[in-house]
Amino acid sequence: MEEHTQADVGLWIDHREAVIVVISASGEETKRILSNMEKHVRFSGAAAEGSAGEDVRDRKFGNHLNSFYDEIISNIRDANSLQIFGPGEAKGEFEKRLEEKGLSGKVINVETVDKMTERQIAAKVRERLTHQQAIHLDKNHRS
User: Fold this and answer.
1) Which tens digits make up the pLDDT trace of 15-25?
2) Of the candidates 107, 88, 87, 112, which has an alpha carbon nearest to the alpha carbon of residue 96?
């Protein structure tokens, strides 16, 4: 995303992939980022490894996710606004990562949804932006 472009971003995210839809005056751009991570599996009854092995696995999983989230952030850092969609925990984890990076102010919406196509993501972003602009115009009109 170019530095000088005012863009609004929709992000669909789970632990396996992120779909970024950037909407700006110059059009619409979509990017898909894969985490290259298997689904997080907790092994129970691994008595030989004990909780230390599980802690190492969890730490590796967390580090890998943070790298994945940081790659997404590098693609959306200059966004005017950000809407986050997704089915599970990843959207909340990503929102926390944004807070750590001082970017949480860009988030205008977080919503739990199942799998979405790129067109559905773009439509949701546009719908929310239209709603936000209508509220903004209404507030200005009243003043």
Assistant:
1) 999 999 999 88
2) 107
131: left (phi > 0), else alpha (psi -120 to 50), else beta? Answer: alpha
Domains of the chain: 7-142 (3.30.420.60)
How does DSSP classify residue 64? H
How is residue 123 written in tokens? 């439509």
- Residue 44: CB atoms within 10 Å: 7
Specify the long-range contacts of residues 41-45, CB closer than 8 Å, at least 24 apart. Answer: none
- pTM for the model: 0.76
Instruction: Give the C-alpha separation, 75 to 86, whole Å.
Output: 18
Give burial (CB, 10 Å; 0-12/13-18/19+) of 130.
exposed
Residue with tokens 């967390």: 62
Q: What are the residues facing 24 on neighbouring strands?
A: 7, 27
Query: What H or E segment, with its residue span, contains residue 86?
Result: strand 81-86
